[in-house]
Amino acid sequence: MSKLFDAMQNANTRSAELLTGSEALVRLLDSVDGAKAVGETGATPQNGYRHLELRVMQRPFLLAGDETNATHGAFEAYRALRTKLVRFQSRQGVRSVVISSAEAGEGKTVSAVNLGLCMAQLSGQRVLLVDADLRSSGLSKATGAMETPGLAEVLSGQAPFDKAVVATNIPNLYIVGAGDAKRPAGDLFAGPTFREFMGWCNEVFSMVLVDCPPMMGLADFEVLSTACDGVLLVVRAQRTKRQRLADLVPLLRDKKLLGLVLNGQERQHHKSRPYYYGGNGGSAHRRRA
User: What is the CATH number of the domain that holds 128?
Assistant: First the structure.
């Protein structure tokens, strides 16, 4: 972890040359706190699933048609991160990844959705985004996947697995919203159902990206990470504290930490692309992502 911390401390200096002064990137890498619902669910079936229309320019996410000179750097960053994940998929059989952060507001939901959008552009990839943050439902609110049933109904036994899936207008991109939790999230995740659900997801989809609640102070991460193949941890430049990351070490020990995404790098009031740090036995190497 010491090399990781050193790399993060030096990221501001070493990445300054790569920054682009774009307000679009500022909006992209801002937190999704307060984001409005951007889609509509209807009865139109796609592969037997409900349908959700993701609307362009009403969310801090990047669709294929959104690429401009201003956003090109961000697109390249997510493509590079996608390449790393595809390598894990092909070499290690990774099919399900938990995406989390130390605390709220560090960009985990934006990172999860943009990575899912990017993965879905590849031929042969069927990508599922799962909103497992039942307390805030951030991914559901940001994408508009608010209708039930969702994950909460699956975990409580009120809905079969396939009925919680929503097909989007983006080819090969599917979403499971958080649903309407009638019981505490800790109770819903306590049973075996989430592991069984992930087993089903791994059979139906090529890659499953799980937006997990922040790690600090909540027990959800332990259950979610155990049921998935790997973990991506999002950290925010100028916000995530070194000591806070040190506090996470016991939670990450023996977990399949694939790497860290450094989000929101700032220079002259503008923000850059994310960066990726590959986890391997506690060491880290700085890579553009």
Answer: 3.40.50.300
